[in-house]
Amino acid sequence: MHQSRGIAEEEIISKCKTGSLKYQEMLYKHFYGYAMGISLRYSLNRDDALEVVNDGFIKIFNAINQFDSSKSFKAWLRTIMVNTAIDRRRKDLKFQLNIELDEAMPLSHAAKAIDDLNVQDILKLMKELPAIQLTIFNLYEIDGYNHDEIAGLLSIPPSSSRVYLSRAKERLRNMLKAEAQNNGRTTG
């Protein structure tokens, strides 16, 4: 059983700022699960998520001297991981934006919010969403970004962010309804 002797997070961060590989490894291990959880929401598979985590930690170690220790390190790490995942997929998302907009359904078909879905249903079905819808759903519904912030991150208009979020919710509703019908059950 491997256990550190209760070293404070602040001390680990401080030692990382000096370039200590030992403490960088400790920081990586300490926040790996948290970072992986974030990355998995934005990645299509575990291998991609692992690459996002590793790229994110490289960015963290390169920029750790810029971290303001009066603020939450976990929030800073989260921002870097989300941005790393977005950066990794941005090129693919731009391509998908062009393809998907050609197949666009009118916005009026995107109905009310998905009140009837529980968290497990959403997480199970989210991986079936197109990449752009999955990314925007994660940013808006899970990570709390607004449409203007999402537009800035993805280099799209805020209105496109709204459209893709509506489509993601509509697709999730349709997938849940289809799954319930396939199982001979009704939703609700």
- The helix/strand class is mainly alpha
| Shape summary | elongated
**Largest sheet data:** none
Q: In the CATH classification, which architecture of the largest domain applies?
A: Orthogonal Bundle
- How would you state the average pLDDT, rounded? 80
Number of helical elements: 8
Q: How many strand segments?
A: 0
CATH fold-level topology of the largest domain: Rna Polymerase Sigma Factor, Chain: A
Quick synopsis:
The chain contains eight helices and no strands. With 188 residues, it is mainly α. 25% of the residues are buried.
Provide an overview of this structure.
The protein is an all-alpha fold and 188 residues long. The chain has 2 domains: 1-88, Orthogonal Bundle (Rna Polymerase Sigma Factor, Chain: A), CATH 1.10.1740.10; 104-188, Arc Repressor Mutant, subunit A (Orthogonal Bundle). Helix content is 70%, strand content 0%. The chain contains 8 helices and no strands. It has helices at residues 9-17, 21-42, 46-63, 73-102, 119-126, 131-142, 147-154, 158-182. The longest helix has 30 residues, at 73-102. The N and C termini lie far apart (46 Å).
Features:
single chain, 188 residues, mainly alpha, Rna Polymerase Sigma Factor, Chain: A, Arc Repressor Mutant, subunit A, 8 helices, 70% helix, elongated, disordered N terminus, sigma factor activity, sigma factor, RNA polymerase sigma-70 factor (ECF subfamily)
